C-alpha cells in the first residue's frame, strides 16, 4: 500500500520466501482491540499534550502569585513541554525493557504526582522541579507508548489511526482550557492543579489498555505487510533488514542471553529443591534471587538493544534520510508553537482584539489542526498516494504560512493564514508513520523517541528565542522570519536527502569491488 520507502530512495529485493507463506491475519490488527488502543492514545493526548497547550491559564495565575518576570515564569511551561519530548530516547529504553503498558502506568503516576506537588509550590523554582521536570517526564513516559502502540496494532490504516488518536491534542486544548478556567475561578489555581492531578491518574487506566501483541502477532503483521506492499521488506543499507543483520535485533545475543538465563534458573531450582528439605526460610531468598536474575537478564538485554540502536555499528544514525529527519525536527516544532504563544500579542499590536475575542485565531488553528490530522491521514492511506509526498507538501504549506503571517495586518487575512497553519500542521499525525516506514516497527520506539526529542529541543528553545528577539526589536516579525527560514532549510535538507541516498549503493558496491 505504501510507496513512501520507494519515494524516499530505497530499493527493495525479492522476499518471495516470506510472502509465499499463507498467514491468517490477527483480528486485533486493524480491528478489534486495535480501536481500544486508538481510544487509549486519544485520551493520553487529551490529558498530556492538551493540558500543556492550556497552560496559558496557569501561567497568568503564576505571574500574579509569584510576581516574577514573564521570561522566568514562561520557563515552567516550556520545561514541561520540552522535557515531555526530550526524554523520548530514554523512554525508548524503558519500553524496550518493560514494555509500553508498564511504562505508561508508571508515567501516569509520575505525571499526576507532579501536578499534585505543584499545588504546594512556594516559588517558580519549585515549579521547575515538580511541574517542569516531574510532570514533564511523566507525560513523556505515557506519550511515547501511546504512539508506539498504535503503530504496532495497525497495518493498512496506520495514518488514519494515528490521525484519530492525535486529534486528542486539539480536543484537549479546548477541554482543558475550559476546565482549568473553571477550576481556577471556583477553587483557585492550587486546588485546580490538585484536581487536575487526580484527573491525570486516568493515564494509568489508559496505560492498562495497552495490551501488548505477542511476538507471533508481530511476525504475522510483518509477513502480511510484505505481501501487501509489493515485497517491500528489504531496504538497502539504511533499511530495517540491514540494521537487523548488523546486530541491533539479531537473535544470537538474545539466544545467548536466554541460555545464560536458563542455566542460572536451573541452578537456582536445584538449590531451591535442596532448600525445601533443609530450611523453609531459604525459599523466600531463593525466590528473590530468581526474580533478580530474571530482571537482570531483561535489563541487560533491553539496554543492549537500546544502546545498539543508537551507538552500535549499525545504529539508526547510519540511515541518511533518518538523520535528515532529525535535523528537520530540530526546527519544525518551534515554528508551530510560536503562533500559539505570540498571536495574542500580534492581535493586540494590530488593534484586532475586538474581532479576535469573537473568534480567536488560536481557536481557528486548533480546530483546523484536528481536521487536518484526520483528513491527511485518510489521504495518506489511499494506495496510490505516497505518505512521504503528503508529508512534504504539508510541510511546505506550513512554512510558507509561517513566513507570510507577519505580513497580514487585517483579521480576515490572519484568519485564512491561521486556518492553513492549522490544517497543514496536521502532518504531525504522519510523523510516526513516516518514521516506521524508515526504520520498521521494531525500531519505532527508539527512532520516534529521537524525533520527539528533537521536537522537544525545538519547543524548549523556540518561545524564549522569540521573546528575546522581541526584546531587541519590539516586534515578533523577525522571530517568525528566522524560525521560518530555519524550518525551510530543514525541509529542503529532508527533501534532497533521498536523491543523494540513491547514489550510495553504487558507491558502496564500487568500494566492495576494490576490496
UniProtKB/TrEMBL annotation:
Q: Which PROSITE patterns match?
A: MFS (PS50850)
Which UniProt keywords are listed?
Membrane, Transmembrane, Transmembrane helix
Q: Where in the cell is it found?
A: Membrane
Give the gene name: Slc16a14
First-listed, main subcellular location of the protein, grouped into a coarse class:
membrane
Q: Does the keyword Transmembrane helix apply?
A: yes
Superkingdom classification of source = Eukaryota
Name of the molecule in the record: MOT14 protein
Question: InterPro entries from the entry?
Answer: MFS, MFS_dom, MFS_trans_sf, Proton-linked_MCT
A Pfam family found in this protein is MFS_1
For this record, the Gene Ontology CC terms, alphabetical, are: membrane
Amino acid at each position: 500500500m505504501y510507496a513512501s520507502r520507494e519515494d524516499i530512495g530505497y530499493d527493495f529485493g525479492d522476499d518471495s520466501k516470506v510472502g509465499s507463506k499463507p498467514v491468517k491475519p490477527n483480528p486485533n490488527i486493524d480491528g478489534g482491540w486495535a480501536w481500544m488502543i486508538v481510544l487509549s492514545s486519544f485520551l493520553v493526548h487529551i490529558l498530556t499534550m492538551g493540558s500543556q497547550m492550556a497552560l496559558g491559564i496557569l501561567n497568568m495565575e503564576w505571574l500574579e502569585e509569584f510576581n516574577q518576570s514573564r521570561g522566568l515564569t514562561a520557563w515552567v511551561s516550556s520545561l514541561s513541554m520540552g522535557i515531555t519530548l526530550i526524554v523520548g530516547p530514554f523512554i525508548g529504553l524503558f519500553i524496550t525493557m518493560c514494555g509500553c503498558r508498564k511504562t505508561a502506568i508508571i508515567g501516569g503516576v509520575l505525571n499526576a504526582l507532579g501536578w499534585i506537588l505543584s499545588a504546594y509550590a512556594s516559588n517558580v523554582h519549585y515549579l521547575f522541579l515538580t511541574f517542569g521536570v516531574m510532570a514533564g517526564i511523566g507525560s513523556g513516559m505515557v506519550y511515547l507508548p501511546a504512539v508506539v502502540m498504535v503503530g504496532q496494532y495497525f497495518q493498512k490504516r496506520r495514518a488514519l489511526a494515528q490521525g484519530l488518536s492525535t486529534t486528542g491534542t486539539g480536543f484537549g486544548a479546548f477541554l482543558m482550557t475550559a476546565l482549568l478556567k473553571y477550576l481556577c475561578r471556583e477553587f483557585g489555581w492550587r486546588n485546580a492543579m490538585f484536581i487536575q492531578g487526580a484527573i491525570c491518574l486516568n493515564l494509568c487506566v489508559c496505560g492498562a489498555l495497552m495490551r501488548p501483541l505477542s511476538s507471533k502477532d508481530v511476525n504475522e503483521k510483518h509477513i502480511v505487510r510484505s505481501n501487501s506492499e509489493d515485497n517491500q521488506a528489504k531496504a538497502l543499507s539504511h533499511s530495517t533488514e540491514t540494521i537487523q543483520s548488523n546486530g541491533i535485533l539479531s537473535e544470537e545475543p538474545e539466544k545467548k542471553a536466554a541460555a545464560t538465563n536458563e542455566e542460572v534458573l536451573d541452578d537456582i531450582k536445584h538449590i531451591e529443591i535442596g532448600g525445601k528439605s533443609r530450611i523453609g526460610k531459604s525459599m523466600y531468598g531463593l525466590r528473590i534471587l530468581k526474580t533478580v536474575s530474571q530482571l537482570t537478564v531483561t535489563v541487560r538485554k533491553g539496554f543492549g538493544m537500546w544502546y545498539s540502536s543508537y551507538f552500535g555499528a549499525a545504529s539508526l544514525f547510519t540511515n541518511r534520510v533518518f538523520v535528515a529527519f532529525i535535523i528537520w525536527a530540530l526546527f519544525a516544532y518551534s515554528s508551530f508553537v510560536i503562533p500559539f504563544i505570540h498571536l495574542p500579542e500580534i492581535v493586540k499590536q494590530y488593534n484586532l482584539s475586538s474581532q479576535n475575542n469573537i473568534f480567536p485565531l488560536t481557536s481557528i488553528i486548533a480546530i483546523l489542526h484536528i481536521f487536518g490530522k484526520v483528513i491527511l491521514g485518510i489521504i495518506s492511506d489511499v494506495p496510490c498516494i505516497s505518505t512521504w509526498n503528503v508529508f512534504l507538501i504539508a510541510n511546505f504549506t506550513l512554512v510558507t504560512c509561517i513566513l507570510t503571517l507577519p505580513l497580514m495586518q487585517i483579521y480576515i487575512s490572519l484568519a485564512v493564514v491561521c486556518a492553513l497553519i492549522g490544517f497543514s500542521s496536521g502532518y504531525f499525525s504522519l510523523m510516526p508513520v513516516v518514521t516506521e516506514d524508515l526504520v520498521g516497527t521494531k525500531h519505532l520506539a527508539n527512532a520516534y523517541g529521537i524525533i520527539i526529542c528533537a521536537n522537544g529541543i525545538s519547543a524548549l528553545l523556540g518561545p524564549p528565542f522569540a521573546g528575546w528577539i522581541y526584546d531587541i526589536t519590539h516586534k515578533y516579525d523577525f522571530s517568525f522570519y528566522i524560525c521560518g527560514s530555519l524550518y525551510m532549510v530543514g525541509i529542503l535538507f529532508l527533501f534532497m536527502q533521498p536523491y543523494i541516498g540513491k547514489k550510495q549503493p553504487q558507491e558502496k558496491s564500487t568500494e566492495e569491488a576494490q576490496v
